[in-house]
Amino acid sequence: MSTPSEKNRSQSRFLSLPDLAARSAGGAVLWANDELFAEKENLITPGSAEFRPATFGHKGQVYDGWETRRRRDLGPDAADAAIVRLGVAGIVRGVVVDTAWFTGNYPPQISVEAAFVDGYPSVEDLVEKTQWTTLVERTGVNGDTRNPFPVDSPRRWSHVRLSIYPDGGVARFRVHGEGVLNPDFADGMTIDLAALENGGRITACSNMFYSSPNNLLLPGTARTMGDGWETSRRRDAGNDWVEVHLAGRGTLNAAELDTSYFVGNAPGVGRLSGRDGNGDWFELLPPTDLLPDTRHRFLIRDERPITDARLDIHPDGGMARLRLFGSLTADGLQGIRESWDASA
Predict the structure, then answer these.
(1) Percent of the chain beyond pLDDT 90?
(2) Closest by CA position to 327, among listed 199, 184, 192
(3) Could you give the domains of the chain?
(4) pLDDT, tens digit (0-9, with 9 covering 90-100), for 305-343
(5) Strand (E) or helix (H) holding 240
(6) Looking at the whole model, is its pTM more than 0.70?
(7) Residues of the chain with confidence (pLDDT) below 70
(8) What own/partner pairs with CB < 8 Å and gap ≥ 24 does 50-57 have?
(9) What is the pLDDT of residue 3?
(10) What is the per-residue pLDDT for 9?
(11) Taking every annotated instance into account, which residue ranges of this chain make up the domain Allantoicase (predicted)?
């Protein structure tokens, strides 16, 4: 029988996966039935919620979260809700309902549902016509707390609905999981095989003292140093590194090592390796000097297929983004198709 601490570790293991709902990952809050006190868009803001006491606006204390008015129709099914479009369709492994700073005004209970809707559905279609599947049953939450809930569902989802019972405030809503690439957007194309939106994911990392390595795979360019991956300062002879499982088996033709915004803490040297399955690592880019605050682009001349890549930085420091451009092999594309169909 597992101990309570082992159970907690198992339940929260999903927290290392990227947040598919985050604004920085392309997520958006499309609808809420009420947001009188605080805007729904705050739910997916990267970073922790902030609080400044005695900051009152016309409608009351200003909260860094989503807050609805007090309901007076307190029937058994009274609830407020918000719908989030994920930045990338994916398999949800767990969610976090964070009620930070909400103490006397948090919802006593929540539930989470999801749907996969192809294309770009209207808000009306999502609210009135979409069939939703329960990911987290109606359950209690605590105030001023990060409330994690593991999800056991093999299907891919594009939209998630958070319901709160009967009303109140939620600071952040995190949806952790793995992106699933639509094979129609990979067949015969050169894509970023490491990108979160294409199904790439971080599998191992030596150090993430200041910020998560998941930031390396986010879409777009970093806007601040906090948008990247930064390690603590090493005081030994080693170096830091990160490993990425690609969207599928493929061959690389270019790589981008971006140190944007890292001025006094960029790595001095970068090295890129790859491997096919559980095979040995082999060098794709030899140790190469890196400059601060620079997007470095390198051609990759090695045509051997890989499923995983490893970036070594020497000795430590920060990287904004890692891009690995290439194309899927025939069996890599087939694997993507099978994953897409299996998660329908």
Answers:
(1) 89
(2) 192
(3) 4-179 (2.60.120.260), 183-332 (2.60.120.260)
(4) 999 999 999 999 999 999 999 999 999 999 999 999 999
(5) strand 240-258
(6) yes
(7) 1-12, 54, 56-62
(8) 51/100, 51/101
(9) 46
(10) 54
(11) 26-178, 199-327
Please confirm whether the linkage preceding 166 is cis (ω < 30° from 0).
yes
Q: Residue 315: is the preceding peptide bond cis (ω within 30°)?
A: yes
Q: Which of 142, 184, 169 is nearest to 34 (CA)?
A: 169
As a whole number of angstroms, the distance between CA 31 and CA 37 comes to 15
Q: Token pair for residue 39? A: 């805007």
Cα dist from 287 to 54, 198, 261, 271, 309, whole Å: 53, 27, 22, 5, 15
Per the structure block, which two tokens stand in for 19?
């947040």
Burial 298-335 (b: 16+ CB within 10 A, else e): bebeeeebbbbbbbbbbbbbbbbbbbbbbbbbeebbeb
Rounded Cα distance between 227 and 218, Å, is: 9
